[in-house]
Design brief:
Layout lengths: L8 H17 L7 H22 L5 H19 L4 H29 L7 H14 L10 H5 L2 H6 L11 H20 L3 H16 L2 H4 L8 H19 L5 H17 L3 H15 L5 H21 L11 H20 L6 H22 L3 H13 L8 H15 L6 H29 L13 H5 L4 H34 L2
Helix pairs in contact: 1-2, 1-3, 1-4, 2-3, 2-8, 2-12, 8-9, 8-11, 8-21, 11-12, 11-13, 11-19, 12-13, 12-14, 13-14, 13-16, 13-19, 14-15, 16-19, 18-21, 19-21
Length: about 500
């Protein structure tokens, strides 16, 4: 018999309710309902803690349950044409998700599992403890913006004196599910999809640099899920699908990323621009909605926690959010010009990576050292990646040699997103030294604890999609050849 004291019942109920709402809202993208529910949970938790900080007498957990119930009501009204059947399926999804969280809580407690002991994690837990008491003890300088808000906010919903036990494995599972759904949208042969994904899963779960994220007190696993959802949404927009579900899940993913850390605004920027371009078939309000979902949540938590920008003071971040939305309008205006095209946008995204590297080598004497450090982390074991990067690179080269056909539009968009994100990640880490010490340092150091080394999981969805799309084409080529051979043999046997 499970001891009820091991289970955080209010938060479990909230997660189940949000899962019901997610399932109802994402009528055309139900497979993404679980990862999106996890992201929505983080957003709602952040809002609840913000309310508690504004009104100390208000209980954040009560606000979280209330908002979660409101999400279900709105989703039920939204799905009214199919309400009975849809609600029953959604309720089942909510029960399953809540049960998963219960199992994770019990296993985590009985097994004594916890996060890798990093200083970052201790800072997050310290902030989380303050949130539980309704106060915010802001870290010195830029550290508060770097550690962000969403992670300590949802961790503060744990029992008094605890972080939210058992939720990090749920986030990791959401990342795996989101990656699978992304790949299922790309590959029509479901048997091949399942074989390839199981193979990929075995590789990922045998890689220590990946599995450490199951309990790592950080935001990396959630950003992995965010990028899987964003890429899935981007590819839906590329096909000009009139799917409100895609817009909803993309906005939730952008809001979750924005709630987590300040540097996510930079890391998400190339994807945000690409989304704005490929969603041209959507209403303009939807396209600018991407920018609102990105900048407003960040401005809310940065402002209420007392961060100030030079000159503008307390109004700095609200002004920054308005400026960000105006930039979005400007980007949309530029995209209406004759020179704008798919190829231009793809090259601009790739240019983020090239431009960042050029900038790094031009301004920092440590740039080459950082490149060497990345190589050591990825291929010489220091980053705890084992043989996985080398194996996948060789495998990708092999499938390219077997399939030298033209690159599909899907592959071009995926590569553009991966390249742009990688460039933005390097730029974000490259700026760490400037923001903290006023000097330009490197962007990577040796060891698994290096931020860029841990952030590489953001690229798993895109890299997996590129590899599996190529593998599918090789399979189809050999399958077609085999069928032709069978037909030829049958023809020869005829009298």
């Amino acid at each position: 018999m499970i001891d009820p004291q091991l289970i955080n019942l209010p938060v479990t109920v909230s997660l189940g309710l949000i899962q019901i709402g997610s399932f109802l809202f994402l009528r055309a993208s139900k497979n993404m309902a679980f990862p999106v529910a996890v992201m929505a949970f983080v957003v709602v938790a952040s809002v609840a803690v913000l309310v508690q900080l504004l009104f100390p007498k208000v209980d954040a957990t009560a606000v979280h349950i209330s908002v979660s119930a409101l999400v279900v009501i709105l989703a039920f009204l939204y799905a009214r044409p199919h309400c009975i059947e849809a609600f029953l399926k959604a309720a089942g999804a909510g029960v399953v998700t809540a049960a998963l969280f219960v199992v994770s809580q019990v296993v985590t407690r009985l097994g004594g599992y916890s996060s890798i002991g990093f200083g970052d994690g201790q800072t997050v837990i310290g902030i989380s403890e303050g949130f539980q008491a309704g106060v915010y003890d802001r870290p010195d300088g830029i550290i508060g913006l770097k550690r962000g808000f969403g992670l300590p906010a949802y961790q503060s919903l744990g029992f008094e004196g605890e972080f939210l036990v058992g939720f990090l494995p749920v986030v990791f599972l959401a990342a795996l599910v989101a990656t699978y759904v992304l790949l299922s949208n790309l590959i029509s042969n479901k048997t091949l999809l399942n074989v390839l994904y199981v193979s990929l899963l075995l590789i990922l779960l045998s890689t220590e640099s990946v599995t450490r994220h199951i309990y790592l007190m950080n935001t990396h696993a959630l950003l992995w899920a965010v990028f899987a959802v964003l890429l899935a949404g981007l590819l839906k927009f590329v096909k000009s699908e009139q799917d409100k579900s895609a817009w909803v899940m993309v906005c939730v993913a952008l809001a979750a990323g924005s709630m987590l850390r300040a540097d996510n605004l930079l890391i998400l920027a190339p994807t945000l621009v690409l989304l704005t371009w490929v969603a041209r078939s959507q209403p303009k309000s939807h396209r600018i909605g991407f920018w609102v979902a990105t900048f407003v949540p960040f401005a809310a938590w940065a402002t209420i926690l007392g961060f100030e920008l030079p000159v503008l003071g307390p109004l700095g971040f609200p002004v920054f959010a308005v400026f960000g939305i105006l930039v979005g309008l400007g980007v949309m205006w530029l995209m209406d010009k004759p020179w704008a095209s798919d190829k231009v946008m793809q090259w601009l995204a790739k240019g983020v990576l090239v431009g960042t590297l050029v900038l790094a080598f031009a301004l920092s004497p440590s740039a080459w050292t950082s490149i060497v450090n990345m190589f050591i982390n990825l291929f010489l074991g220091e980053g705890l990646w084992g043989a996985t990067p080398l194996f996948l690179v060789l495998l990708y080269v092999a499938v390219i040699l077997f399939d030298r056909g033209p690159v599909s539009q899907q592959q071009k968009w995926i590569f553009a997103l991966v390249a742009g994100t990688m460039g933005a990640m390097i730029l974000a880490k490259f700026g760490d030294g400037l923001s903290q010490s006023g000097t330009l340092g490197g962007f990577a150091r040796i060891g698994w604890g290096d931020s860029l080394n841990r952030m590489l999981v953001y690229l798993i969805p895109g890299a997996s999609a590129l590899l599996i799309l190529r593998a599918e084409r090789v399979w189809n080529r050999f399958d077609a050849k085999s069928k032709r051979q069978v037909v030829a043999n049958q023809t020869k046997k005829r009298p």
